[in-house]
Amino acid sequence: MSTDLVLYEAADGIATISLNRPEVHNAQNMALLDELDAAWTRAADDPQVRVIVLRANGKHFSAGHDVARSTWDDNRDKWLVSDIYEVESRRYVGYSLKWRNIPKPSIAAVQGVCIAGGLLLAWPCDLIVAADNARFSDPVVAMGIGGVEYHAHTWEMGARLAKEILFTGRPVNAEEALRIGMVNKVVARDELDPATRELAAQIATKHPFALRAAKRAVNQTLDIQGFTAAVQAVFDIHQLGHAHAISETGQPVLMALDGLKNQAAQMKR
Q1: CATH assignment of the domain containing 42
Q2: Which of these, 107, 113, 128, 114, lies nearest to 178 by C-alpha position?
Q3: How far apart are CA 101 and CA 212, in angstroms?
Q4: What is the model's pLDDT at position 184?
Q5: Dihedrals φ, ψ of 246, to 5°?
Q6: Residue 152 in contact with residue 261, Cβ under 8 Å?
Q7: Which DSSP state fits 92?
Q8: Is 1 contained in some domain?
Q9: Three-class SS of residue 178?
Q10: N or C: which end of the chain has fewer CB within 10 A?
Q11: pLDDT at 252
């Protein structure tokens, strides 16, 4: 596995996976996502690993999909919904659900912005530790799409706040995220890695079978309430957004200027 885009290390029962594209605020292209999935798989398959930590190098956790260029890293004259569906169902919803269900506890350490596609990386983790400068947002309604591919919004925020965040595109700051239960704790930026490591070390002392059982119990409860079925159903609504955008512009999203300006403004703060 290349160490250019994603870094991996394991020690003391903790696997640490680091997004390593700080020059573009850890924006996601296909190569980064594939390397990230390989790192998750490596941690899952290592019997010495009891806890997985996902973190990011640089100022921001993730600016989401790489909208500055084609996220797919290609140039095409014609977009087909069937192509988009195949790629996004595997790399976006597929990867996120896979990471969510890995039978080991996972913790995301989030600093700066976690925008749209960034949510696909943080939300599948069991716990989230946020720096006090963390901001979570999904501004893609401004781009003609009803929400990012992995629709955990309703579960993470509650229905009314999820609608507000989607309709307006405004970010949820760290304190608000803590208040609504979307993150487990908020710490000073310079304490993010030590605090996350301390939490991971505490969890790593527990028996791995018991941890697996506890995680499965909570995830199964959410699934009985409809979580996975809802994510998969809303993914089809997301694809309808792509189809609408293609019918209007020939491109998979309506690249509204205000949406891009909003995203850029968040990363400058």
Answers
A1: 3.90.226.10
A2: 128
A3: 10
A4: 98
A5: -60, -40
A6: no
A7: I
A8: no
A9: helix
A10: C
A11: 78
Report the domain count for the chain: 1
Cα separation, 110 vs 124, in Å, equals: 13
CB 110 within 8 A of CB 62: no
Q: Which two tokens stand for residue 265?
A: 């403004």
Residue 77 pLDDT: 67
Within a 10 A sphere around the Cβ of 257, how many other Cβ atoms?
8
169-178 confidence digits (pLDDT tens): 999 999 999 9
- Flag whether 203 is in a domain: yes
Amino acid at 175: E
Measured CA to CA, the distance from residue 96 to residue 87 in angstroms comes to 13
Helix (H, G, I), strand (E, B) or coil at 68: coil
Domain that holds residue 212: 6-268
In a domain, 101, yes or no: yes
- Letter for the amino acid at 65? H
Angle at 46 between CA 44 and CA 50, to 5 degrees: 70
Q: Is 136 helix (H, G, I), strand (E, B) or coil?
A: strand
Report strand pairing: 106-110 vs 172-173.
Answer: unpaired
Which token pair is 87? Answer: 């790629």
Q: Is the torsion defined by CA of 24, 121, 19, 182 positive or negative? A: positive
Cα–Cα distance for residue pair 68/266, rounded to 1 Å: 15
State how far the Cα of 1 lies from the Cα of 220, in Å rounded to an integer: 32
Q: Give the model's pLDDT for residue 72.
A: 53
CB neighbourhood size of 87 (10 A)? 15
